[in-house]
């Protein structure tokens, strides 16, 4: 009996989720974690449905303004959208079957309309005669962009973060601009097409916006001074921009280009015809004051600094260096070339000529281009190099982690624990991390492609104390059963899989499963599918299987996009998970009597002939006499002799030159490629080719373009540009040189050729003149810099002298200081007594005024602080209280009777906590902490814990908290049982 109670308390420890207020739905920038969203494509528009994942919506906002005049209980919102923007909206209140309010989008807000106007507009939308309003609000601090309305390009220069916001959807414009809660721009006539924002110390301080008034472009500038955004002119904008410099320097760096330590730099690499260009830009807080190559000093300074250093390598040896120096906004360049084993200073022309000679003399490029830098995937904290999506399987939450384009994973770790080392030539496609009830990783299953295009599956689970053991895929079902509570499926909902069906109480997700396109429908918490139909044909009806409650439907499609398999998963009455399998027979989905037949067809969809081989974790085998047909095949292309059944060939003229284009037909990819002029690309198990295009003029080969992908799933696309010069092929990932070669060989007529040569001669004369001007300017600039350095040194010497003179003068004034009466200052009342009283916060026995977003919270009087929302509840027999600061504030100092227990930092802020009481005394607390890493917020990713030990409330880890809390919970439960 005691064991049963113990298990009950263990599973119920975190059964009470954090109490949250009803969320507010933003129609343009909704939070996918709080909103269940589904969409259905119509002929001229898209129907979207929004449902709260828990509770109701308290309001609906769009374009920065609420649609409802007062907080309400919104249960559903249906929108009719064009180009990703909602044009018409229905709002449902209090579980009503009929919409209670109708709204239409205007330029700067949504307007309430009557039913007749709404239906008229919807009819115009259906007929394609509706005039859409493609304007949206851009908030610079917004973290959600589910519709992909804009892109954000970010770079760091001299400690200042520059972010460029650009609308992505054609014809969409920004009509309102906000920065947090502050309005910056709003207009009915002018609209924004680009916003350049500069951020200092985590706050936006300077804006440059590109406007469009009709067809007339323009610019506006804004600065934030005295906590307000003001429009300024260009000269003021430049002054503020020039003043954005780091407040302090953490360290002065010496960069050794032969052995660089990259931790303190932002590093980028480019490849061009055998040369590798590496650019080092110091991170904020670091200044480069010296550059060397091994034991040879190249550049150093006492006054300026180097915001950028370019190092050029040939076969892993540094051959040239360019140092960019900055002194009081004056930029200069220093060039160095390696001659006879040592670096010598060179001019800009000598530097460029040296690199061009090396490119021309370099041997043909390697058959296999340089691969991306390997990355490490940490399951506890995936970096921004990975896309992470939260989903659920068998009512257990899991994170689906997918490497972004160009990211190659070398190992998978959990903190310092190495879980998987990628074998040679093995590419990770995606990984599922299954979470326990505390949100911590409990198991994972990864899918990769190995040598010979074989499937690689690796899976492990945590047996305790961070000890991970192999988990067979067939054991996953049993492991997930131990991670979930007993399912409570109380509400039925029908799932009609057709294009115009609006989902209710269900979520839809699309992804790839071992290369097979997958569409997944999952019922919300406590809901199940009582009936499933596909385009009017019945697939499942609970009336036929009363003990089976499906919660998940997976559809798998072939390369043509046609759905061929259906997987129906759900729970039996005894809590066991069951899966039924269906196959498309040409007219409807029919039941398969075994999982083996399902896997056989699935292997056909995923291309078993290419992906066949030994799995890292043995999967269930299929015994069948039928041979699975190939889905993807690798074909080696030879342009002089190819199979037209496998290759599509096109030839023609384009922009003055000729081309021959080769594309693999459906279900094929190119491996090796052999082309004209001795062109050779060797696959070697690395990148597959999806396009080979060769360019020529009058039989003279100029170059080629190869579009490649990193796997059979056509992910990690990369384009290589080849040029044919001096009878040699060389490649680059930069299109610049390729374009120059093609432009120089265009098919001119004799008249145009003569004109072109005259232009070239004029350009050459102009370049010579400009070189002389630049040389003269460079000479004058050097003189000016030398003069400036001398002036700075002279001012420093004079400053020391003036300080001594001021001390003598100060003593003279101090003699008569007592004779002068100090002026009386005018009293200025900053706050009224009522405002001061509202700003007071309790701390121990006293109260004091706090003017910032910080909240000082004392556990002695948890309900006394006016800036904190509280709610009482029961947790496993103990009295408990949930506390959340008002909007815009967070807990800074937590105390008990004036004794500090926990203090926030610049990277860790407490936004919610729960207190546990025993006989009126606080015995423990759980703090929900928002963690900030590199300026990006991740909410709810961490928790801190407090509990009474040795008679005092102290900080403890999660294991000690669980142990101490379980003891208290058991005592409280036994006390309640004794009263029965």
TrEMBL record:
<feature type="region of interest" description="Disordered">
    <location>
        <begin position="358"/>
        <end position="382"/>
    </location>
</feature>
<protein>
    <submittedName>
        <fullName>Polymorphic antigen-like protein, putative</fullName>
    </submittedName>
</protein>
<feature type="signal peptide">
    <location>
        <begin position="1"/>
        <end position="21"/>
    </location>
</feature>
<dbReference type="InterPro" id="IPR007480">
    <property type="entry name" value="DUF529"/>
</dbReference>
<keyword id="KW-0175">Coiled coil</keyword>
<dbReference type="Pfam" id="PF04385">
    <property type="entry name" value="FAINT"/>
</dbReference>
<feature type="coiled-coil region">
    <location>
        <begin position="759"/>
        <end position="805"/>
    </location>
</feature>
<keyword id="KW-0732">Signal</keyword>
């Amino acid at each position: 009996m005691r064991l049963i109670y113990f298990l009950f308390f263990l599973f119920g420890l975190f059964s009470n989720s954090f109490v949250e207020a009803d969320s507010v739905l933003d129609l343009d920038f909704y939070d996918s974690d709080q909103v269940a969203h589904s969409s259905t494509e119509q002929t001229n528009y898209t129907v979207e449905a929004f449902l709260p994942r828990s509770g109701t919506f308290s309001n609906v906002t769009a374009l920065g303004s609420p649609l409802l005049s007062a907080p309400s209980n919104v249960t559903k919102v249906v929108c009719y959208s064009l180009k990703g923007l909602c044009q018409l909206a229905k709002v449902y209140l209090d579980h009503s079957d009929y919409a209670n309010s109708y709204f239409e989008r205007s330029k700067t807000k949504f307007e309430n309309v009557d039913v007749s106007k709404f239906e008229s507009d919807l009819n115009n939308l259906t007929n394609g005669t509706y005039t859409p309003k493609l304007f949206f609000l851009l908030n610079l601090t917004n973290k959600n962009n589910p519709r992909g309305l804009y892109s954000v390009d970010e770079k760091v220069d001299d400690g200042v973060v520059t972010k460029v916001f650009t609308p992505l959807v054609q014809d969409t414009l920004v009509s309102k601009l906000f920065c947090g809660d502050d309005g910056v721009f709003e207009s009915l006539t002018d609209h924004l097409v680009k916003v350049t924002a500069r951020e200092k110390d985590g706050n936006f301080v300077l804006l440059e916006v590109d406007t469009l008034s009709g067809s007339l472009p323009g610019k506006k500038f804004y600065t934030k001074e005295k906590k307000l955004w003001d429009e300024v002119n260009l000269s003021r904008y430049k002054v503020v921009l020039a003043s954005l410099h780091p407040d302090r320097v953490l360290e002065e760096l010496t960069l050794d280009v032969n052995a660089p330590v990259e931790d303190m730099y932002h590093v980028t690499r480019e490849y061009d015809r055998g040369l590798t260009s590496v650019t080092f830009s110091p991170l904020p807080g670091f200044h480069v004051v010296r550059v060397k190559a091994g034991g040879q000093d190249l550049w150093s300074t006492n006054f300026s600094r180097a915001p950028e250093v370019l190092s050029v390598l040939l076969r892993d040896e540094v051959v040239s260096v360019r140092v960019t120096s900055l002194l009081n906004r004056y930029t200069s360049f220093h060039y160095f070339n390696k001659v006879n084993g040592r670096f010598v200073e060179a001019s800009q022309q000598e530097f460029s000529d040296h690199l061009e000679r090396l490119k021309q003399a370099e041997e043909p490029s390697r058959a296999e281009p340089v691969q991306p830098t390997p990355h490490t995937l940490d399951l506890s904290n995936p970096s921004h190099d990975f896309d992470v999506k939260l989903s659920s399987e068998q009512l257990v939450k899991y994170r689906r982690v997918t490497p972004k384009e160009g990211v190659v994973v070398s190992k998978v770790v959990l903190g310092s624990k190495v879980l998987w080392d990628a074998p040679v030539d093995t590419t990770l496609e995606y990984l599922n991390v299954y979470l326990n009830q505390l949100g911590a990783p409990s198991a994972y299953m990864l899918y990769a492609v190995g040598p010979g295009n074989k499937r690689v599956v690796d899976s492990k689970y945590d047996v305790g104390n961070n000890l991970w053991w192999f988990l067979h895929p067939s054991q996953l079902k049993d492991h997930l059963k131990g991670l979930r509570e007993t399912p409570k499926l109380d509400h039925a909902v029908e799932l009609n899989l057709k294009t115009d069906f609006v989902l209710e109480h269900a979520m839809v997700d699309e992804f790839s499963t071992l290369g097979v396109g997958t569409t997944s429908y999952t019922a919300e918490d406590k809901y199940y599918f009582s009936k499933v139909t596909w385009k009017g044909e019945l697939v499942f009806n609970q009336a036929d299987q009363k003990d089976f409650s499906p919660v998940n439907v997976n559809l798998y499609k072939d390369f043509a996009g046609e759905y061929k398999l259906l997987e129906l998963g759900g729970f039996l009455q005894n809590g066991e998970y069951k899966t039924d399998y269906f196959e498309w027979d040409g007219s409807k989905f029919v039941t398969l009597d075994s999982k083996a037949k399902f896997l056989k067809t699935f292997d056909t969809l995923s291309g078993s002939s290419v992906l066949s081989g030994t799995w890292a974790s043995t999967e269930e085998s299929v015994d069948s006499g039928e041979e699975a047909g190939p889905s993807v095949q690798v074909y080696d292309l030879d342009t002089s002799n190819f199979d037209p059944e496998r290759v599509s060939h096109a030839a023609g003229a384009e922009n003055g030159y000729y081309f021959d284009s080769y594309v693999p037909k459906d279900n094929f990819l190119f491996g090796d490629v052999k082309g004209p002029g001795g062109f050779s690309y060797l696959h070697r198990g690395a990148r597959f080719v999806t396009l080979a295009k060769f360019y020529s003029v009058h039989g003279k080969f100029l170059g080629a373009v190869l579009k490649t992908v990193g796997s059979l799933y056509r992910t990690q696309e990369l384009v290589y540009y080849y040029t044919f010069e001096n009878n040699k092929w060389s490649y680059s990932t930069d299109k610049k040189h390729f374009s120059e070669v093609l432009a120089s060989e265009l098919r001119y007529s004799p008249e145009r050729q003569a004109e072109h040569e005259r232009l070239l001669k004029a350009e050459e004369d102009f370049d010579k003149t400009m070189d002389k001007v630049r040389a003269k300017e460079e000479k004058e600039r050097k003189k000016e810099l030398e003069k400036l350095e001398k002036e700075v040194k002279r001012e420093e010497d004079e400053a020391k002298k003036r300080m001594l003179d001021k001390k003598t003068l100060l003593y003279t004034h101090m003699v008569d200081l007592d004779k002068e009466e100090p002026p009386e200052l005018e009293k200025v009342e900053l706050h009224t007594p009522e405002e001061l009283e509202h700003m007071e916060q309790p701390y121990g026995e006293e109260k004091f005024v706090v003017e910032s977003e910080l909240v000082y919270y004392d556990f002695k009087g948890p309900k006394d602080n006016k800036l904190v929302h509280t709610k009482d509840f029961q947790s496993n027999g103990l009295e408990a209280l949930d506390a959340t600061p008002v909007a815009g504030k967070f807990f800074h100092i937590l105390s008990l009777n004036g004794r500090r227990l926990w203090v926030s930092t610049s990277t860790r802020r407490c936004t919610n906590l729960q207190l546990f009481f025993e006989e009126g005394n606080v015995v423990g607390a759980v703090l929900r902490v928002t963690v900030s890493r590199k300026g990006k917020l991740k909410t709810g990713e961490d928790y801190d814990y407090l509990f009474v030990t040795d008679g005092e409330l102290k900080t403890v880890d999660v294991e000690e908290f669980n142990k101490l809390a379980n003891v208290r919970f058991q005592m409280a439960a036994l006390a309640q049982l004794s009263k029965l």
